[in-house]
Design goal:
alpha/beta; 8-stranded parallel beta barrel; 8 strands
Length: about 200
């Protein structure tokens, strides 16, 4: 298995659309991985499908990428995914680390809250996520996170992920503010050519 730091190098972090059928999602993910995505988060509402998660994990193994499960550390442990992304209502990072082990990638949502980020940074996550940086079609009621929060978060010494309404047109704002990873759903998976769109994002770095 790759060192987890290999998957956290600056680049595109693809998040799956929450409501797509497996028949639509799996080939779309294959296209994103072909475009150079090294980090993929399986995000599904109201809950992830273990069978889909296993198929995504196989795709990531084929492509040399890592799969994180959104919210569900137990599922990540069961299928031996590469890690988990945790929000405000999920288990604490330390509990996820106990479940998944030292080599797992654990990411945490910090929203626009640097105090939360400082607190969580002491609990052993591998990256800190901030957003919504821009108006988000996925979460229209999400809190707004100014770009200077990303800049301030650099002092915490962990990779910084920007999320929320990111497109090719505004991605440079996030990168210049300090984002290592760009977490993208809509602008990637709604693209006419998903593989090409993924490559365009990777070229920004």
């Amino acid at each position: 298995m790759n060192d987890k730091r290999d998957f956290l190098k600056p680049g595109l972090y693809a998040l799956t659309p929450a409501d797509w059928s497996p028949a639509k999602l799996l080939p779309a993910v294959d296209a994103a991985l072909a475009g150079g995505v090294r980090l993929l988060q399986y995000r599904a509402k109201p809950a992830p499908d273990p069978d889909v998660a296993r198929e995504l994990l196989k795709a990531c193994h084929r492509a040399g990428a890592a799969l994180l499960i959104n919210d569900d550390a137990e599922l990540a442990a069961i299928i031996k995914a590469h890690g988990v992304h945790l929000g405000r209502d999920d288990v604490e990072p330390k509990k996820a680390r106990e479940l998944l082990g030292d080599e797992a990638i654990i990411g945490v949502s910090c929203y626009d809250d640097l105090d939360r980020a400082r607190h969580l940074a002491d609990s052993g996550p591998d990256y800190l996520a901030f957003g919504s940086l821009f108006a988000s079609p996925t979460k229209p009621d999400a809190v707004n996170c100014p770009p200077d929060v990303l800049t301030a978060a650099r002092e915490l010494g962990l990779p910084v992920t920007a999320i929320g309404g990111i497109t090719l047109d505004n991605a440079r704002i996030a990168i210049d503010a300090g984002a290592d990873l760009l977490a993208v759903i809509t602008d990637l998976f709604n693209a006419e050519d998903i593989e090409q769109r993924a490559r365009q994002y990777q070229e920004l770095f």
